[in-house]
Amino acid sequence: MITAAVRAETGRLLTLPAVWLTAAVTLVAAGLLRELDHTQAGLLVLGTLAGTTEVRTTLLAVPRRGTAATARAVAVTLAATPVSAGAALLADRAGAAAYLVMTALLATGVSSLIRHPAASAGLLTGWYMIAGPVLRALVPASAGWLPDALRTGPALVWTIAVLAVAAVVLSRRDA
Amino acid sequence: MISIEHLSKSKGRTRVLHDVSFTARPGRVTGFLGPNGAGKTTTLRILLGLDRTPTGHARIHGHRYADLPRPLTRVGALLDGSGAHPARTCRGHLHWLALSNGLPRARVDEVLELTGLAPAARTRTRRLSLGQGRRLGLAAALLGDPGTLILDEPVNGLDPAGIVWMRELLRARAARGDTVLLSSHLMTELSATVDDVVVIDHGRIAAQGTLGEVTAGHASLEAAFLTLTGGRAA
Amino acid sequence: MSAELRKLAGLPGAWAGLLIGLLAGPLLVVLNAPAVRRALADGTVTDRADLGLQHLGLALIGATVLGVVTISSEYTRARDDTGSRQVSATLLATPRRVRLLGVKTAALVLVVAGQGVLATILTLAVTAVVHGTAVPAPGWGRCAGAVLFWVLTALLAYAFTIVTRSGIVPLVLFLVNSSVVSVSYLLTKLTPAAAYLPDIVGAHMFLHGMDSPVHPPPLVAGLIMTAWVAVLLAAAGTLFVRRDA
Lengths: 175, 234, 245
What we know:
The complex is a heterotrimer. Chain A is an all-alpha fold. Chain A is built from 8 helices and no strands.
């Protein structure tokens, strides 16, 4: 069942035109700017697209919410990996590829909690582009424990935490 | 067989369902009637595992929807809209759904044919008319050739030919032993389609039985409905 | 007009934009005070009067959000992948599209200009409290330039959203570009022509010590940015009038 759910969810993501558009823009930005501070916004959008579209239909096809959430996380990982690897290489930061995949997963979790695509994308981008950098400028030590500083360790912890919270909340509330 | 037992639910401070119980039997079309806001959609969403149940049970063949392996092969559901992303094609939408329940790809074209959507297979769902959107929703419901159909306002948006087609489809399904539960507030149409009737009003079951039982003593199903629901317009 | 203002007032996103715009500037002045004091002590500041208005930069997100939601709210679907969009109802009530767009634009300008004036006053007042005479107040001309920049930024986001019909694309794009180091600024390092992008060139209206390949006088800067906005608005308007709603 989980294999079918993963295949379907991956197929679902890869047939959304917006996903391809986001991937293309992300790679172009990475190539042009040769950095990831801004480019990571593309992964935030990718995650948001996965977390906020066709939720009801997905639950009718895969009603076990744990299975549905797991399949979605795996599908996002599969879809985000080539984009992340490409962007990281273009920006000469190959080591940051895993961080970028986690950024997409984190966005999936946050947006599935918020449920509104534009609000989620706005909040996430606002955090990663503005609030996070401002905080880091004021309190440099915060880079070690916030999810958005291009560091794999904190991003991993945050991503796991957000996905866990999302899994609990989504299994309890009305879809 | 669909069985709803002692279902109660509140949304915020309002009680939307009070101890709702009824059954929909195999081989029969059951009409679920009620004015707008009576609790029809909430009941169906609980039955489909979309809304949570604080108290009571909603089961299909003795199982909760969420416990059905490959649910699309057991239950077909149609809710409002098509449920498809606007940028997707009809075929693309049905294809990922088929994948999710391990259904053969050939089923996609079969249901497109069956629902008359074959010419629109490559159309993006944002370009569909209301009626076409409903047909796509129905195609998704029929994808796994399920033995149970749960349909929320299925004739909404269909043209007269579509309504007749829908009626014949549902009758044929019941004739082969399927369980069909549909909600509606179109009385005239419903009295030609259903065998059994469940009337809900203000979140409570107001009447249930065969069409004959519920309409006994009334001029029509419509008259029975208006009496049972206190004359409020549907 | 009052209908459009009322519509805006009914959107949680619009209120969020309004508050961000008003509060982000003063807040940043306070948070950034130690860094500003250090810069003043180092003598690295080229124009001290810049320091007050500089903190308006991030608050511009508020104006951007207002510009985006004015349009995106019309195109949001009522429910998950179903339902109709408000734009149909709007066009049934106000079928003449040019007029509709004019009214919408006017409503936005009114709200955003008010917000810009208030945000500028608040930010400069807080700057005066925090830094006293160390940071001189900028002249009226520069303050007016800042408000104009504010309004033009909102209109830019607004025009962009008319074209995309979705809130996500412009919101993300503008948020990414309002980052501490903006994308436009990075592009000026690639090609000097990027210095004529609206957000870079427009800032010359009220900031003097900018790191930029070109330094047009405030009036010219204002004209170039206004031209950008005018062209984009005209293009967006034409599209809005011609296409199916």
